[in-house]
Design brief:
six-stranded mixed beta barrel, elongated
Length: 451
């Protein structure tokens, strides 16, 4: 990783040293070498994207992260340039504090260098802030995605003749549970055309065609589902409703007639609606729901989920003893194990944060060092013209402080936007980064620039 990035971004500049004209050593205005460095930087950028995709192990996550950083860099450059244009008229005003005029003049006069420094610092700070958001808001958002009283037990394999006694048992134990039917079936035709898994590149689509899946039926749409398109079932009709993601992966549209093989029986139903089930609710949800007229008579078992307080676990062993064929899954134990793994991941992210901080400091130092000689010459000239040491020092502090504040604000904006996109389109839950991101970003930018 290090060698690839080093060659991509440093080698083009090093190669140009062989074509530096001798006059450049003696006269700075003699012009630099005109090397073809674009290809080298393109290799570096391509390597950066390839490494992101490789490490992420997920196409959507890698592309969103890489695209977010490139878009942020371009946006930061535009906003910084516009901001400097807006500051240009202010430097001509008569300020009571001379240092303000010197600071504004320094920012505006070195416009290209200032934009480059703001972009470099902003991208470095954005990486650190994104890690901090991952450590706090993103992790907490995942933890709070399921409500506190979400179901933590799943009960499966309830036979049809056991439905009523099981419901009565759970009700007597004070556990709120709604049993829902489960029918095993496989999608075999769409509009009379047989389906072949080889037609689809999406792995989920191939699984739906190659294997049986859980179907169910209901008169009313379950409470943890949201209707996305179409209309709910008409009484007595043979209709089907699909999860919108499944319909997209299978390339299905409203009005298609789907044929399922259920225990050797062909069942036809028209696709009349698309849903968005809330899987984070931990309630019983299905990818495929049919109208009762289509599946009521098919072979079926029943399933339910419910919340069991820590003090009320005693009735479940008695239930399983009475109905040995039932299976109870303790989801809370699984989530606790996931939480322990997540805590270890957080420790790893904190270690990564330290390395990122060190890298950000180096990037900032390199960006500011590019204008160090020019700053020294300006300070010497202003000193010769009568500026005091305090005036020069305050001017430098103000200039770098404004530069750091601008970079920190842009970094906070970019990190918040990128974290929201990742939460929405990769991890699939709502995230609103806190105000601390802006305070930390601006403060870190000012401190880093001044240091």
């Amino acid at each position: 990783t290090g060698v690839w990035l080093l060659l991509g971004f440093a080698l083009p500049s090093l190669v140009q040293l062989g074509r530096v004209p001798p006059a450049r050593v003696l006269r700075e205005d003699a012009g630099g070498p005109l090397g073809r460095a674009t290809a080298g930087y393109a290799v570096g950028i391509a390597g950066f994207v390839a490494l992101l995709l490789w490490v992420a192990g997920d196409l959507a996550l890698g592309l969103l992260t890489a695209g977010g950083f490139f878009a942020a860099f371009a946006l930061f450059g535009v906003l910084a340039w516009v901001g400097l244009l807006a500051l240009a008229p202010l430097r001509r005003l008569q300020h009571r504090v001379v240092a303000w005029r010197f600071a504004l003049a320094g920012l505006v006069r070195r416009r290209a260098a200032t934009v480059a420094q703001i972009c470099a610092l902003s991208v470095g700070l954005m990486a650190m802030l994104l890690l901090a958001i991952t450590r706090t808001d993103l992790v907490e958002g995942w933890r709070s995605a399921a409500p506190p009283n979400a179901p933590n037990r799943f009960l499966i394999n309830v036979q049809a003749d056991q439905r009523e006694p099981v419901e009565a048992f759970l009700q007597q134990a004070g556990l709120q549970a709604t049993l829902r039917p489960v029918v095993r079936g496989r999608l075999i035709e769409v509009n009379g055309e047989p389906l072949d898994a080889a037609q689809f590149e999406d792995r989920r689509a191939r699984r739906f065609i190659d294997r049986e899946s859980n179907l169910s039926y209901a008169e009313q749409m379950p409470p943890h589902n949201r209707l996305v398109a179409g209309a709910w079932f008409k009484p007595g009709a043979r209709e089907v409703s699909l999860d919108e993601d499944v319909a997209r992966s299978l390339r299905l549209k409203l009005g298609d007639v789907l044929t399922y093989d259920v225990a050797g029986q062909r069942i036809n139903a028209e696709l009349t609606s698309l849903r968005a089930p809330d899987w984070d609710s931990m309630a019983v949800n299905f990818f495929v729901l049919m109208s009762p007229a289509a599946l009521r008579d098919a072979p079926q078992t029943w399933i339910t989920s419910f919340h069991v307080p820590s003090y009320a676990d005693a009735p479940l062993p008695a239930l399983v003893a009475r109905f040995p064929n039932l299976s109870v899954f303790n989801v809370s134990a699984i989530l606790q194990q996931v939480q322990r793994v997540l805590d270890q991941v957080i420790v790893a992210v904190q270690g990564l944060f330290i390395f990122t901080l060190a890298a950000g400091v180096l990037v900032l130092y390199a960006a500011l060092s590019a204008t160090r000689d020019e700053r020294v010459r300006e300070a010497a000239l202003l000193r010769a013209l009568g500026a005091t040491r305090n005036q020069l020092m305050h001017a430098q502090w103000l200039e770098l402080g404004m530069l750091g504040a601008a970079a920190g604000g842009l970094a906070a904006f970019g990190a918040s936007a990128l974290a929201w996109v990742l939460a929405r389109y990769v991890f699939h839950f709502a995230l609103v980064p806190g105000w601390w991101v802006w305070a930390a970003g601006i403060a870190a930018g000012i401190v880093a620039a001044l240091a």
